Amino acid sequence: MEGLESLGINWKVLLGQIANFLILLFLLQKYVFPKFFQVLKERKEKIEEIIRKEEELDKKSEMLEAEAEEIINKTKEKAEAILKEAQEKAKEKEAEILGNAEKEKEKIIQEAKMLGEMEIQKLRNEFLKKNLRLVILLVEKMLAKKIDPKEDERLVLELLKKIENHEK
């Protein structure tokens, strides 16, 4: 112990400090450490619970993202299908309209041809009626007179000039 005194350590004080330390250690173990460790344990459990919930939320979030992506893809597919169907219907309608327009055009052309042919026939009939009257008049004149060949030729030329004038 003299070795301790030579170092400037008082062994009585050292024993008192050791006794105080042991008492303090006993009190800490009896009253403080259990509560402290209980708080640490509860905190650890809370942290573990939070981590577990976070992992669950991450999994749910990933699942929801996958579902959202699937819904978006399905929606895109439906939109594309609707768009394609609308385009097909538009093409069908266009073809129908063009077909109807073509039929209507053909109908109008046929009607115009028929009207033209009827008008031509009407003009021919009128022309024939007028010429027929002239021929009848000429024949009546020829029969009414005794005609010599020169007079006959003159009447035919006169008739031809009248016909030419009517045609113009």
Account of the 3D structure:
The protein has three helices and no strands. With 168 residues, the chain is mostly helical. The protein has one domain (2-167). The longest helix is centred in the middle third of the chain and has 134 residues, at 11-144.
What are its keywords?
168 residues, mainly alpha, 3 helices, 0% strand
- Overall strand count: 0
| Strand residue content | under 5%
Question: Number of DSSP helices?
Answer: 3
Q: Major β-sheet, in short?
A: none
Compute the CA-based radius of gyration. 64 Å
What is the string of SSEs from the N terminus onward? Answer: HHH
Explain briefly what this protein structure is:
By secondary structure, the chain is mainly alpha-helical. The protein has helices spanning 2-6, 11-144, 149-167. The longest helix has 134 residues, at 11-144.
